[in-house]
Amino acid sequence: MKYLVDSDYVADYLGAQPHAITLLSSLVEEGLAISLITFGEIYEGIYYGRDAKKTEAVFRLFLRSAPLLPLKPPIMRQFARIRGELRRTGKIIGDFDILIAATALHHRLTLVTRNLRDYTRIPNLDIYRPS
Question: What DSSP assignment string belongs to 14-76?
Fold first, then answer.
């Protein structure tokens, strides 16, 4: 497994956005995963979206190629270190984003996201940059 996919790309994939389908399809052989946080954010979209049954079916298919990574004590400790440093330097971002970043760092995965504004604040986080 090489990549952790952020909620923005999963949502775009489920919404049949060509850029997300193309990118994730090109990365699937190297290994994709999602965080438990992304799982929750996506289910919120499913529950309050327009076509819950269809979107959930597509999401379940997506999960066959992208396993779910749970939160564990080492990830939560990484979260605490990141959050404390961001708070200390006045660069705090949302807790969900910090948890996703902590998951990527713990598993040594490259984060696939469009949210560069927030994630670039986190030292040592490897962010996918299309060539």
Answer: HTT-HHHHHHHHHHGGG-EEEEHHHHHHHHHHHHHSS-HHHHHHHHHHHHHHSPEEPP-HHHH
pTM for the structure as a whole: 0.95
Residue 129 covered by a domain = no
The dihedral formed by the CA atoms of 66, 9, 93 and 123, expressed in degrees to the nearest 10 = 70
Q: Report if residue 125 sits inside a domain.
A: no
> Is 128 inside a domain boundary?
no
Domain that holds residue 67: 3-119
Structure confidence by residue, pLDDT tens digits, 52-103? 999 999 999 999 999 999 999 999 999 999 999 999 999 999 999 999 999 9
